[in-house]
Every structure is written in C-alpha cells, then in structure tokens.
Amino acid sequence: MQRDAEWTIDLTSVTGDKSVPRTAVGKGLLSEATGLDGTVSGGGRPFAGFREVRELNFDAYDSTGTGSENYAAAEAHDQRSEVTDFFPVTFMRGASSTCYGYVYRAVRPGTTTADVFIEFYDTGAEVSKWYTPNDPANPGGSGSGLNYTGQLIMMGCSSTETMTVETLGRLVYVFVRGRSPAVFFLDGGENDVDPENAAFNGSQVIGVTGDNSTAGQTGVPGPGFRPDFLDIDKATEIGTLPTPAYRRPSTRIRAALAEQQVSGGFARTLW
Questions:
Q1: Which long-range contacts (CB under 8 A, 24 or more apart) does 240-243 make?
Q2: Mean pLDDT for the stretch of residues 221-226
Q3: Chain-centre distance for alpha carbon 265
Q4: pTM
Q5: In whole angstroms, what is the distance from residue 70 CA to residue 20 CA?
C-alpha cells in the first residue's frame, strides 16, 4: 500500500556510515537508512512503496470443473499457500491473439509439496479478461477438453528443486528438476475461437502429473514418447524386422573354412 510520509531529515546529501557503532556516528551521517530508493544515483530519494498490480487467484481451485478427480490434491491451497517461484510469460492463442500472464509455483499449506498454475490475459478475445485457476478458460458447451486441468500445469512437484519456464509460440513449458516436464496451450479448435466461444476446447495440459499409468493422468513418463525408428528402404519399423539366422556373420565363414580344411582345400577370407 502506498502511504504519504513526512521526511524530517534532509536527504539531498545524506551519507551512511557503517564503520562504527550507531552511537558513534558523526553529525550529518546515518548509521542505517531505510525507505530510500536504491535504484537512483545522487542524494537519497524516498522510496514510494509498492503498488499492487494484481492478486494471484488460485486459492479456490476446484478440480470438479475439469471433469477429473485426479487433480483433487491441488484443492488444498488457500490463503496460507506460499508462492515461491514466479515467471512472466507471453504466448499465442492460435495465430490471432497474444496472451500474457504468469506461471507460478505455490506450496500447499503445511507441506513441502507444490503445484504450478498459470494465469493469463487473452488480448484478442471478444470479451478480454483474466483467466485464473479460480476462473479458468474452460471448454465451451461443444468443446472437447481432452486434457483440461483448469490451468493447473504441474501437480505434486517439489517445492525446492530448480524450476524454469520457457515459451515457444503457442506452448508454455514448465520444467522442475526430478520429474517430467509439462506443457500448456490453448486449444481454440479448427476456427481458433477464443475462450468465451462455445466451441472452445479449453486450456490444455500434457504432463500435469508426470504419470500415464492411470486413466486421465495425461502424463508422459521419462523423457517423452518413444520414437519410431523406420527402415528407409523397406519403410518398416525397425523393431518388427525379422531377426537374422546368424547374429554373427563370421560364424558361417569359420564353418565354411573348417569344412574346406577337413577336405584338404584352401580358403582365404577377406575381413
């Protein structure tokens, strides 16, 4: 909150002195200065204080709106939750709108477990507004929302391990050391509709739990999906090619050589 204050000390040429105890500081010097703006040079200037820009809105996260009970653990957040990491992001919704907002990690009250949420503002939407975990960009009446998590990007991650966030066009990637990454994007469907349209498919997340062993978890374990390696000549997946009768070609060469030696013949092999 910004407050008006009356300054009784001349700050145009004030100088601090930390080399001696407080009682030994000379006239015209300060032992310690608080409330000064340290970003400017010259005489001390009063720090105007902080001005509230936006209040994070995740304390009433409701997993029932996502259609999945797998995210119910993230409902533990309330006013006691502590935000430990905060990343500004800018990304695209389709090719028509730029979105900006915040990705942040919040620690559940009384635990060391954290969840990662996103809040964003869609500048190109017909009705521009902030979308938060308490008021998410949910699927419309005819949308699909296959991986809809109510703007919960990562659930049950460490609250202390290193966290980074990267954006690439429409995608917002979240990385926390020790678990698989998660990616967030807005699915506007074929016509790239905004979140207020009935055909909007919702804000989508892949990797929210880091597990795909249970239905609805939307996670990808390890480094990601296993790639398919194809044989260029036969256009066949390498894993399906028939196994050769002899895994070591030199076995047949030795057998032929031994047979010729027995019959008194001579064989020369090029290696």
A1: none
A2: 51
A3: 71
A4: 0.66
A5: 60
